[in-house]
Design a protein that fits this description.
Layout: H1 3-33, H2 40-46, E1 53-58, H3 65-68, H4 70-82, E2 86-93, E3 99-106, E4 111-117, E5 128-134
Parallel strand pairs: 1-2
Antiparallel strand pairs: 2-3, 3-4, 4-5
Length: 146
Amino acid sequence: MTRQSRARRRCVAVASVRARIVAVAATFLVAAGCGMLNDPVEERWESRTEFSSCGEVSLDQGEEMQKEAVREITCLQRALKSGGSAELKVIYPTVEGDPIREYYRLTPQGRLEVYTDSTDDRYSDRKWSFGECYTPEWLAEISCDR
């Protein structure tokens, strides 16, 4: 085998590897564009059974929910006391100003579910997250005793 034919084979092999990498990347992008790589927490949120709405709260930098969302928190508290169900959407900015969306769901069983959408936060994992607890300790803060 000549030096030139070995060089040609090496060149073909490198081109073949590059072509495979490009093909895998293209497949990944197509799959993402077709919704095949959806976030399972987001899918869970989207497919939920909707509860009655307690509204939506948009907080500005430094605003506190217990001061800005009294009516909405009261709505959740009424649902908790009556054994009902309710949902509340809260939007607040990160330190850098990116929006975080949290969805609070109070189920008829007294469970508080918290879905957090961080997809627009440049400095996060850009994913959804989920947490839950039974009988939240203090609904004004809408948090679970951990």
